[in-house]
Please model this.
Amino acid sequence: MSLSTDCIQYSGTKKDCPVSEKGKTYRIINSSNAVLTVYAVDPCLIPDRQQKKCDYLIVAHCQDTMKALFIELKGSDITSAIQQIENSLRILGNSLKDYQVFGRIIGRRVTPNIKSRRSGLEEKLRQHGGNLQIISAAEFSEKL
Model:
């Protein structure tokens, strides 16, 4: 599946690039002046209501690397958030072959019994040169 330009919510080089939903915010501080493109995954890139999918995909074109960040902004069901990112990666992964791929889950509570589900997604992201971060906070910022 390709990344449809119809699903772009923002594209440019602004220094502060937040996405928000359900009282949660993920923010990229674009100190490298990368070209950022924010896609709405749910319901645009993956419109099928039966499919679990994450909220956003942020693609960053830096000077020497290309990064893709799957973002899920969640209340408390972290296990479901992991499944949503895994499924989004499975469906959209062919469009991101040349990218380092990362997963970011911003949730209210991080439950301790997710170790096996988490390790499976972490391994998939490592194979794409990225990692997974699960953050228990209303807002999380990260420099690019």
In short: Helices lie at 41-45, 78-92, 115-127. The chain has a mean pLDDT of 93.
